[in-house]
Amino acid sequence: MARAQSQYVCQDCGAVHARWVGKCTACEAWNSLIEEAGAGALAPPGTPKAVTKGKAVELEGLIGDTEEAPRMVCGIKELDRVTGGGFVPGSAILIGGEPGIGKSTLLLQVASALAIVGRTALYFSGEEATAQIRLRAKRLGLEDSPVKIAAETNLANILATMRKGKTPDLVIIDSVQTLWAEGLESAPGTVSQLRATTQSLIRYAKASGAAVLLVGHVTKDGQIAGPKVIEHMVDTVLYFEGDRGHPFRILRSIKNRFGPTDEIGVFEMVEKGLAEVANPSELFLGERDNPAPGAAVFAGIEGTRPILVEIQALVAPSSLGTPRRAVLGWEPNRLSMLLAVLEARTGLVLSSHDVYLNVAGGLKITEPAADLAAAAALVSSFSGCALPSDRVYFGEISLSGAIRTSAQTTSRLKEAQKLGFKSAVVPEQGEYEADSSGIEVTRMGELKPFVTQLVGPKGDQAN
After folding, report:
1. Mean pLDDT of 2-29
2. Are residues 337 and 321 in the same domain?
3. b/e map of 331-368 (b: 16 or more CB within 10 Å)?
4. For the chain, first and last CA: distance in Å?
5. Is the pLDDT of residue 4 over 80?
6. Which entry of 118, 161, 349, 403 is 20 to 30 Å from 225 by CA?
7. 67 within some domain
8. Hey, CA dihedral for 403, 409, 415, 420, is it positive or negative?
9. Do 372 and 441 belong together in one domain?
10. In terms of Cα–Cα distance, which of 299, 312, 347 is closest to 460?
């Protein structure tokens, strides 16, 4: 009898190796290979493989009547916004986030909201006992909702339970890293188990029409643990972001086959769980009564939602040979590029200063249009001159020092006007509805005149 083959699988990228090595040759990750059992016994040499004759499939054209995917609205508006209008029956959703960020709390609230309106919601937990789930529900005031719960990690038992009786509308698996399939010898959480269990759950969702919501662990880098192939398998990928020092939580859509990507929902952690935030701009702005140097308001766009957030900067003389560069909520490489452009194109000498940049409220910004607001905050802190508290900034800065146009200018200006801002600094190019903004707009095409306007022609001698 042939012996079962053993293989070593990278837990970061899923690459298969014949023997153990310290560094994966595919993704160059160290100590990521784990031994797993192969697919089965090796066939004797020369044994012919069975080949089935393919079946021709019917081809269709692009022209035709196609209905929009039906939606299952849960009633939590911020979550419905992120998913594109509600859960699609038969879809698979993967949600990831750091431990303690509030994933289980949000999912229990979602299951309860659907169960209360007559939907069937099943909650399978592989990390908590049913008694712990009941205690959380009691703390949230949801103990009377007809949600069905179970503590189970065996994939076969979970599938058998879901197939018993009426097909559920929503199935929550918390978390997919705890599941194990009987046909595999590898431990739960390994690449083989993740692929097998996820594929089985997706197959059940497509066949039955139930929406399956999977919880995924994250690595120390904030990425969902396991190979990226799992994110490719599901229909929607959501990330739950937030800082434990702030009560705000951001639910961000990274992938959505049934709706827009990069959409966000904003929640606030309160005593009774996660509460929706109808106007997140007011939370991220903070107090604006006493303006201080180094603070600028950025009018950004997250998905389809305009959001105003305060960018804070501190530029201080450094006694170190290599000054510090620290940034929270923004791309560090973007800050390095912006500092180089300020020094090369405007004459601001920042190479001997420590630079700290922070996005207020724990929000993470990836939009290039934040360049102008970040530059305004840096120049304001460097010169010691406070910026007007009723002004917003947005625009991308190129390496040549030009301020490039940003999309959805009208939406940004409308949001600023709604919150009481009186003026805005925007790129020179780009159209907007002047009558609908209601605020004074200043156009800037180059970075140097903008900096000169803030600190004067001799601003490079400040500090």
Report:
1. 79
2. yes
3. eeebbeebbebbeebbebebeebbbbbbbbbbbbbebb
4. 80
5. no
6. 161
7. no
8. positive
9. yes
10. 347
Strand 295-302 to 305-317 pairing: antiparallel
**26 burial via Cβ count (<10 Å: 0-12, 13-18, 19+):** middle
**Residue 429: CATH number of its domain:** 3.30.230.10
Q: How many CB atoms lie within 10 A of CB 50?
A: 5
Q: Which pLDDT tens digit goes with each residue over 280-322? A: 887 777 666 677 899 999 999 988 889 999 999 999 999 888 8
Question: Shortest CA distance to 157 belongs to which of 182, 123, 192?
Answer: 182
For residue 416, what is the enclosing H or E element?
Answer: helix 409-418
Instruction: List, in order, residues 6 or more apart from 144 with CB less than 8 Å away.
Output: none
Domain co-membership, 242 together with 383: no
Prior bond to 175 cis, omega within 30?
A: yes
Write down the pLDDT at residue 457. Answer: 52
What letter does residue 339 receive in the DSSP assignment?
H
305 token code pair? 């939602």
Here the tokens at position 7 are 């293989």
Token pair 């090595």 in the structure block, residue: 21
CA 296 to CA 376: how far, in whole Å? 6
The domain containing residue 335 runs over which residues? Answer: 282-461
Residue 303, domain member (yes or no) = yes
- pLDDT tens figures, 11-22: 777 788 888 888
Identify the residue whose tokens are 């990226």.
228
308 and 252 in a common domain? no
Q: How many domains does the chain have?
A: 3
Q: Are 15 and 27 in contact (CB under 8 A)?
A: yes
Among 220, 247, 278, the domain boundary falls at 278
- Are residue 235 and residue 368 in the same domain, yes or no? no
* Residue 239, phi then psi, degrees to nearest 5: -115, 130
Question: Which residues, 6 or more positions from 427, have their beta carbon under 8 angstroms from its beta carbon?
Answer: 372, 394, 395, 396, 403, 404, 405, 406, 443, 444, 445
Number of CB atoms found within 10 A of residue 382's CB: 27
Residue 320: name the closest of 348, 352, 350 by CA.
352
